[in-house]
Design brief:
2 copies of one chain form a homodimer. The first copy, chain A, is an alpha/beta fold. Chain A contains 13 helices and 12 strands. In chain A, the strands form 3 sheets. Chain A has a 7-stranded mixed sheet with strand order 2-8-7-6-5-3-4, with helices on both faces. In chain A, helix 2 (41-53) crosses helix 10. The two termini of chain A are 34 Å apart.
Chain lengths: 389, 389
């Protein structure tokens, strides 16, 4: 399997080169999942206020290994309010964004050298292969249910074995934009409970939720941790606050999870071995000022609707996204790479779905200005026309 | 061997508890290496200007995996000017502070599962045990030369074996404050060249230099990378700019080093496996504005001189520090832990040297206000008096 990064990056670099020739306004770059709206002023105002008015030895000083208490307190308070949970500081460990959170979660549940595996579901973020591999386990990928991009449960059940220590989900999903329904999460939790009992060891559910706040109207978007005790949530503010450069997120374990008592201490030990020492203090303090703040995320839904309406009318098949800023339509030929190459002639930068476990599909990352989305429709029309004769 | 962190943290936590009783102004807390002076205004002004006046999608957006080009450019330019080097962007990889830099350097030179080792010299920062262990190698510690805290070369040469892939140095040194002289570095480089030739593989020199900018008057403080081709420098702005919370540093390899061509790409691959994805963008851009800026570091030399004069006059034996904000005097009894316990009755918080590979010694982290250093002298006098009868 190839890695997604190289394909995404290659398309992105092509887009940059092309922009030098025709101007960036004329390149419809749908390759990168980089937020296109500004961070909330609650966050940026907090940064400035902290730097100008607070004690510099606090603001620029070391964070405790577990994270700043102000941030941990504000985050659990926000989660408790929104999801009616009872989290305390003992549930949360601050991490260098979602990548750091996942690095800790995987290492917390994996014993290296024992041939263990973690299962995830296609379509999936291909960096997971490296993230899981680095923890000493193998990532096993359940083939996609292309009809809904929910979970292919039959295939999943047959792939769980005695070496399975965790299941990794990403809902709302990169690259499909689909949100797992309450029914999906309940069925998944039931299987995990039954299999844990059968195998005699806990199978953790690791829920990677950077897109949790980007959910479109009418979408059923359950808070995963409510449905399964042995859940570890991995979160980042990269998408909800449009601050991927802030490298700030967290790991959160349920109070009912096995190993809850030691979880934060275990994360501290893991940090020492991987050179991870907290997210930046300033960003933690800024998040703490308003942990529930988000960017103006409505633009993503606007963009999705414009693209969904146009592309489906052009004959593209796709499952309508329930959140994120991605969609994963079926290409107009079997070879999605060839399809994305053809798209380049209209300065449309698309990413083939192969590395996401979705061959024949392509990803559109529609985190771009809406006016650009509108201008890109003509390019999609021309691309579709290539396949009409 | 116990870990340093727990001892340092335990003493620090004791100091906090004690401060609640007698007031923090009356606790002479010399436990933590947390900078006590404000960051340079070049850095803090840059933070505010970037947040208020630059494109938020740049300032808060993803950094490339290798780091922001602005930061890499500014840093190599500064190093080239100060040390007459010829570094380019191909030499440098931005990291989440020194811990992140070391995590990459170790993984770049170690092949896991082959029983390799990395050698360092006591006294040493005890977290190195975990940092090296996490990379799949073992840390071997050369006993200290207590007469000078330079290198015990005889012991060192006898410890190099066919499994040695790197030597790790930390000069200016935590915990001794000693700076390796040009003579020491030259002799070390000669041995490494000879042993590399003899063993038929490169032994890298990994130079952990967060205290490089804190050097006292008259100290011979060579730039290590000039003396040995196969050097990897690990750096952090935590101490020079007083921003440990900014989590910003870098790995730098010499152009003449084996593996130079692939080094930055290798670091990117390593990042993917350990959940490390660049230091925060905002901090990289702020550093880029003036990569050579430092806090007003003179206070540390002032503090050192006050303590050195008083403690030596009280009969403490020590090697005079050449930099950092640490010193490592000999305790007044063989058991440094017992000594540090006795110091508590005078509200002096000191850290026993055992975990640093210096049993019988204690560390003073004199990154505290000078007026407090002066007030602490009476406490040291009372402590010394306990041993005078």
């Amino acid at each position: 399997m190839t890695t997604g990064e190289s394909v995404i990056r290659r398309m992105y670099m092509y887009g940059l080169d092309r922009a030098k020739v025709v101007g960036s306004e004329n390149v419809f770059d749908y390759s990168l999942g980089n937020p296109s709206v500004a961070p909330p002023s609650a966050y940026t105002d907090a940064l400035v206020d902290l730097v100008q008015n607070e004690n510099p030895l606090l603001v620029h000083g070391y964070s405790p290994n577990v994270g700043m208490p102000q941030a941990r307190e504000a985050i659990v308070k926000d989660l408790n309010k929104r999801y009616h949970m009872g989290y305390t500081l003992k549930n949360i460990f601050m991490s260098v964004s979602a990548a750091g959170a996942l690095a800790h979660a995987f290492r917390a549940v994996v014993t290296p050298g024992e041939g263990q595996n973690i299962i995830t579901f296609a379509p999936f973020f291909p960096e997971y292969i490296h993230y899981v591999g680095g923890s000493g386990a193998e990532l096993k990928v359940v083939p996609a249910d292309f009809s809904s991009f929910q979970i292919n449960f039959e295939a999943f059940e047959s792939m769980i074995d005695e070496k399975t220590v965790a299941v990794l989900i990403n809902s709302p999903n990169n690259p499909s934009g689909i949100v797992y329904s309450t029914q999906t999460i309940e069925r998944l939790a039931n299987i995990l409970r039954a299999k844990s009992a059968e195998l005699g060891h806990v199978i953790y559910l690791i829920s990677d939720e950077p897109y949790r706040e980007i959910v479109f109207e009418g979408t059923d978007a359950p808070f995963v941790a409510k449905f399964y005790d042995n859940t570890i949530v991995c979160y980042s503010y990269s998408k909800s606050m449009s601050v991927p450069g802030a490298r700030t997120g967290y790991c959160l374990i349920n109070t009912e999870a096995e190993g809850y008592e030691d979880f934060v201490a275990v994360c501290v030990q893991i940090s020492r071995c991987i050179g991870h020492n907290c997210p930046p203090t300033l960003m933690q303090l800024a998040v703490a000022r308003d942990a529930g703040a988000t960017s103006d995320l409505a633009v993503y839904e606007t963009n999705m609707n414009i693209l969904y309406d146009e592309l489906t009318s052009l004959g593209f098949e796709m499952v309508k996204p329930g959140g994120t800023f991605y969609m994963l339509p079926k290409a107009l030929e079997a070879d999605a790479t060839a399809f994305c190459e053809k798209a380049k002639q209209f300065d449309l930068i698309l990413v083939p779905g192969d590395s996401f476990g979705a061959p024949g599909y392509f990803r559109i990352a529609y985190c771009v200005p809406t006016e650009k989305v509108r201008r890109s429709l003509m390019a999609f029309r021309k691309l579709a026309a290539l396949y009409k004769h």
